[in-house]
Design a protein that fits this description.
mainly beta; three-stranded antiparallel beta sheet
Length: 451
């Protein structure tokens, strides 16, 4: 029996009081049995809202919350400010997947061996100070807000190749195998995304200069120093340079300045400034331009292959537009010599006047300069033993200009001459190069017409 009266009045009979007391005792015993485990479960829908804090505790065994309906979720709700929210949903239709309404804050999060972390498309992973340190797009591309740093000697790899990439403390990156990118892919940085582009044909295009340290090298696994670049810019190759058939060598303004055919013939795109060819080219057929009888005839020189004195140096004569032998113009090649039956001359190259006067003996044999102040004739570059010529030194209209000499110039008695200082006077220095650092010279002072 349950209690049927809400109050017991003093006017009620003793029998009424006894009946209500027994009913109350029965109800309290039933509740006690249920809460202590002696009875059946309390129906959850019979629990109403309270007005104080609630604790659920047990000293033995588990506390089980069981949503027994098919695919019925377990919700954890609360009030955020004045708004009711669902803080956590345990989705029973998806094996109990936990869906948090807000962020997860934890000292350590441990996942099972085959577990994973999934963020929404373009979702972020970060820290308190940088909540978007990493962003993962719907395509799986991971974007980092700042640098990626690993320990000195650290590696980056995959399950099958844990050390695919190693980064030394010095910054050297070592790959254990090839680096493959998609056709037309680019490599860059935040400011220039396409610093380097790789075409499907394998052509690599750099947007700007490539700079390596002084004396730096470029190579392969078997030849680490295949290419060395000195601080002066000189490039040294340890072996041959091979380009494709009909490949070209050029500059930004003239990309095909030099073309090399599959047969080895070398063609220059311009003939205005014909390249210098040293004596090492003897016995090698060389064409500086076509000999086709065109309007630019007269530029062209061809050396026939062979090694005897009957070899011919042929050129295209501008006047007759035909091939003639150099021999017919008085030049022969007896033995290892060149013999000219007529006159021979070399241009006089004008040097730039300055405090330090520079000269390149590879650009000529005779030179001239007018002094407009006290000067020093620097050691020339391009020295070849056996070269001889003259240097004409003229005083300007003021005169009194002195000229000192670089250490390569050697004079009789080891004393450099005192040049004529009279206004407009001309001195001539005759020289012969003894070695790449020694020039024997004599001076003819104040050369002028006889009075």
């Amino acid at each position: 029996m349950a209690v049927t009266a809400s109050t017991v009045n003093t006017t009620d009979t003793l029998e009424t009081f006894r009946l209500q007391y027994n009913n109350l005792k029965s109800d309290v015993t039933s509740i006690d049995d249920t809460v202590s485990g002696g009875g059946s479960f309390v129906a959850a829908d019979n629990i109403t809202a309270g007005d104080a804090a609630v604790s659920i505790a047990t000293t033995v065994g588990n506390i089980t919350i069981d949503a027994q309906g098919s695919d019925t979720d377990i919700l954890f709700k609360g009030t955020d400010g004045a708004s009711d929210i669902t803080a956590l949903t345990l989705d029973m239709s998806d094996a109990g997947k936990a869906i948090f309404n807000g962020a997860i804050s934890a000292t350590t999060i441990t996942l099972s061996a085959d577990g994973g972390v999934i963020v929404p498309d373009d979702g972020n992973i970060g820290s308190a100070s940088s909540t978007a340190a990493m962003q993962i797009s719907s395509g799986g591309i991971v974007t980092f807000a700042d640098d990626i740093k690993i320990k000195d000697g650290g590696t980056i790899g995959s399950a099958s190749s844990a050390s695919a990439i190693t980064i030394a403390s010095t910054g050297i990156v070592t790959l254990v195998d090839d680096l493959l990118l998609k056709d037309g892919a680019t490599i860059g940085n935040a400011s220039v995304a396409d610093v380097l582009t790789l075409a499907s044909t394998g052509i690599v295009t750099f947007k700007d200069d490539i700079i390596i340290k002084d004396g730096g090298t470029i190579g392969a696994a078997s030849a680490a120093t295949a290419i060395t670049i000195a601080s002066s810019g000189i490039v040294t190759f340890v072996d041959d340079i091979i380009i494709k058939d009909a490949g070209t060598i050029g500059s930004a303004s003239d990309t095909d300045a030099i073309a090399i055919s599959s047969a080895g013939a070398v063609t220059f795109s311009a003939s205005a400034n014909s390249p210098q060819i040293s004596g090492d080219a003897i016995n090698v057929p060389i064409t500086l331009d076509s000999t086709d009888g065109s309007a630019n005839a007269g530029d062209n020189i061809v050396q026939e292959a062979g090694s005897d004195e009957n070899d011919r140096m042929l050129y295209e004569d501008a006047l007759f537009d035909s091939i003639e032998t150099v021999k017919s113009h008085g030049v022969t090649f007896p033995g290892q010599r060149i013999q000219v039956s007529g006159g021979a001359s070399a241009d006089i190259v004008t040097l730039n006047d300055g405090v330090l006067i520079e000269s390149d003996f590879g650009s000529g044999t005779n030179f001239s300069v007018t002094l407009a102040g006290n000067r020093t004739l620097q050691n020339p570059i391009g020295l070849v033993a056996g070269q001889s010529g003259s240097i004409f030194v003229t005083q300007d209209g003021t005169g009194s200009r002195t000229l000192a000499f670089g250490s390569f110039f050697h004079f009789a008695g080891g004393t450099a001459p005192t040049m004529t200082t009279t206004a407009s006077a001309i001195d001539r220095i005759d020289y012969i190069v003894k070695s790449t650092s020694v020039i024997h010279a004599v001076v003819s002072l104040d050369v002028k017409a006889t009075s």
